[in-house]
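Input (structure):
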């Protein structure tokens, strides 16, 4: 996994890239958010959808919900302040 830190319009952003899945469960999502928070001091995170397990997008699995709940109880702040845009996979 590689994390590149950029500044865009005065906003610090962490751009994550990897050859494999980065988010495979709730704990790995939270670990990534906390790594970005403590290394760059930002909650702004950008990663390609291909780096996230399919279960994250199936709400009935609870992966995304558990992540948001965990995120809201950490020093990262509530989910409304964490920006996690998901870019579509390149053709």
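Output (sequence):
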């Amino acid at each position: 996994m590689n994390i590149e830190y950029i500044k865009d319009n005065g906003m610090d952003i962490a751009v994550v890239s990897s050859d494999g899945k980065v988010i495979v469960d709730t704990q790995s999502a939270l670990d990534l958010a906390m790594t970005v928070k403590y290394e760059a001091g930002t909650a702004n995170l950008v990663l390609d959808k291909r780096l996230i397990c399919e279960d994250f997008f199936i709400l009935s699995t609870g992966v995304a919900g558990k992540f948001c709940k965990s995120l809201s109880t950490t020093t990262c702040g509530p989910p409304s302040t964490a920006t996690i845009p998901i870019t579509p996979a390149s053709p």
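Notes: The chain has one domain: 2-85. DSSP finds two helices and four strands in the chain.
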